[in-house]
Amino acid sequence: MKTKIVIILFLTLVGFSFKTIKKGTITIQKTPIEWVNNLKGDFSFKKKWSYPEFIYKNRFGQLSCDGDCPAEVDLMKDESGKIYKDSLQVFYKIVDTTHIFHSLKSESNLYEYAGTNFIEFETLENGIIKGESSNNVSTHSSLVLEFQNDSCSAWIDFNSIRHSTKHILPLEKGTIKIDKILFNKGIIKAVFDFKFKNTLESDKTLFWKGQIYDEIDIE
Asked: Which residue, among 140, 142, 99, has the nearest Cα to 120 in the 3D structure?
């Protein structure tokens, strides 16, 4: 019995080591940040908003939830999907119908990518500012950015639902301009244009370019 336990532990450690080595072989490239005192461009997208995913307006004019929703809300609807009048107040305490303002306007040809309007930034304990775009039902490639001093690290986290695997696609080359004045006030206003190394199909160039406007979460 002890022998079996030792063998299992050994195989587990070996498997973990291979995963670590594989991840460690990915070199995350950096590109210099071009600081601009007053970044020009049309950033009106930041005034647009959307409801959280799975929230929609039903044919009765009610904001409802369909998909990844709390199980108890189904009991508050009739067979046609209408929310019972006496359940409306409780329904909206459970279901988040907040207006989420857009923070990203971009285009990309990444794998399993159908678009996203959101990217969130936070300050890490080591002082690095990290941003990651949001995935959704149709988008499974996320843009990850890290700002430190005058450099930007960028890569793609591709979590394929078709193959149940995760791939890190490193930056090959690119540029990013950031508004210095707003940055000092805790706001990321940026224009970027990135090309990523395609480790899956070497003959296909991968890109992601666009604009960002988002407040940095300092918590």
From this structure: 142
Tokens of 207: 């890109």
- Cβ pair 204, 38 in contact under 8 A: no
**Model confidence pLDDT, tens digit, residues 31-68:** 999 999 999 999 999 999 998 888 888 999 998 988 88
d(CA 84, CA 81): 9
CB 160 within 8 A of CB 167: yes
User: In terms of Cα–Cα distance, which of 190, 195, 189, 191 is closest to 208?
Assistant: 195
pLDDT of 5: 37
Q: What sign does the dihedral 216-135-212-150 (CA atoms) show?
A: positive
Residue 204 DSSP one-character state: S
Is residue 11 packed enough to be buried (19+ CB in 10 Å), middle (13-18) or exposed (0-12)? exposed
Q: Is 176 helix (H, G, I), strand (E, B) or coil?
A: strand
Helix runs in the chain, H state only: 2-24, 88-94, 180-183
Residue 208, number of CB atoms within 10 A of its CB: 23
Joined together, the tokens standing for residue 28 give 């995350």
What's this model's pTM, rounded to 2 decimal places? 0.79
The residue type of 190 is A
Instruction: Please report, for residues 41, 112, 172, 204, the alpha-carbon distance to residue 195 in angstroms, rounded to integers and kept in the order given.
Output: 21, 17, 6, 11
